[in-house]
Design brief:
5 helices, six-stranded mixed beta sheet, RbsD-like fold, alpha/beta, 143 residues
């Protein structure tokens, strides 16, 4: 056991977070995300039974966001014409703003471009999140 590490952060997840360098990306994926096909070249951690927001909150306690990128946090944009509500995006904004006070950190990426960017991620965390468009990508900064 270590002090100050959120209990939801497993030793395996802590290892990968520590291994990541500046500009490396991680994706916290909802339950519908094609984690294993998109993440063929990434480390994958399954965190079934947990939602994206609780994992995001725990990770941001430890994880510096990139200060050299205008949008070090990215979300998957809705497909044009899709009218589904996305209240999870408001939760993402609240959580991110607790750890980084810069404005406008969260940027959107078109759905298929998000998949392409996720293919380059160092780490993908698969969750049981049921919210649609509940995927978020973080780009690591420096301490």
């Amino acid at each position: 056991m270590l002090k100050g590490i959120p209990k939801i952060i497993s030793p395996e997840l802590l290892k990968y977070l520590c291994e990541m360098g500046h500009s490396d990306r991680l994706v916290i994926a909802d339950g519908n995300f094609p984690t294993h096909s998109v993440g063929r070249n990434a480390h994958i951690i399954r965190m079934d039974g947990h939602g994206v927001c609780e994992i995001l909150d725990a990770i941001l306690k430890l994880f510096p966001l990139d200060t050299y990128d205008e949008h070090p946090v990215r979300i998957m944009e809705k497909v044009p014409g899709d009218t589904v509500e996305t209240p999870i995006w408001d939760e993402f904004e609240k959580i991110v703003s607790q750890y980084d006070t810069r404005k406008g950190l969260i940027g959107g990426i078109e759905r298929f471009q998000f998949y392409e960017e996720a293919r380059k991620a160092y780490l993908i965390i698969a969750t049981s999140e049921e919210a649609l468009y509940g995927n978020i990508m973080l780009q690591k900064g420096v301490v």
